UniProtKB/TrEMBL annotation:
PANTHER family the UniProt entry points to: RIBONUCLEASE VAPC6 (PTHR39677:SF4)
One Pfam match: PIN
Gene3D superfamilies tied to this protein: 5'-nuclease
Domain PIN: 12-158
Protein name according to UniProt: PIN domain-containing protein
């Protein structure tokens, strides 16, 4: 059974994965509200939020792709190619840049990732069947003694000591009847 973000006890330390921040920034139709409510608790310091520079980098980059895809009516993978081939389009991406600057003003502690943490994370790739980025997050949490992660990534479910808290899917609006 998955735990939901609202199940986190007040005062808990929780690692914030990129997808929750992206859901909030992009007003995701299914997970945006739940992610926003969670982040409000972090802003009020009811929860102690932590993350890593790699997560912040991923949030900024994916937010830029989403913003460009909306502005140019293309899909996100096309936006990636478009930015690579036309880097001057970055100048038009004000929202994602602003959101990332605002994120840095939130009371979220950015954990340092050392060479030793990265070296230890390599074992997590096979131990938990994780991609390198997620394996590095797991080892960072292990190093700092953090057991809670706020994410919608099912890959973290394989880590037996980790408590995974997921956003609640927005319920479909009730249909109005005749």
């Amino acid at each position: 059974m998955n735990k939901k973000l609202e199940d986190l006890s007040s005062g808990s330390i929780v690692f914030i994965d990129s997808n929750l921040l992206i859901y909030e920034f992009s007003s995701h139709p299914k997970y945006g509200v739940s992610s926003r409510n969670f982040l409000e608790k972090v802003e009020k310091m009811e929860l102690l939020g932590v993350t890593s520079v790699t997560v912040l980098d991923e949030v900024l980059y994916k937010s830029m792709l989403i913003e460009l895809s909306k502005k140019e009516d293309i899909n996100v993978s096309e936006a990636s190619v478009e930015l690579r081939e036309n880097p001057e389009k970055i100048q038009k991406l004000d929202t994602s840049i602003t959101n990332s600057k605002e994120l840095l003003e939130m009371p979220i502690h950015v954990l340092g990732v050392t060479q030793n943490i990265f070296a230890s994370s390599i074992e997590n790739i096979k131990r938990y069947n994780l991609r390198p980025h997620d394996a590095a997050i797991v080892e960072t949490l292990n190093f700092y003694g953090i057991e809670n992660i706020a994410t919608n990534d099912p890959d973290f479910d394989s880590v037996d000591w980790l408590h995974v808290f997921k956003p609640r899917k927005r319920e479909d609006s009730p249909k109005s009847g005749p």
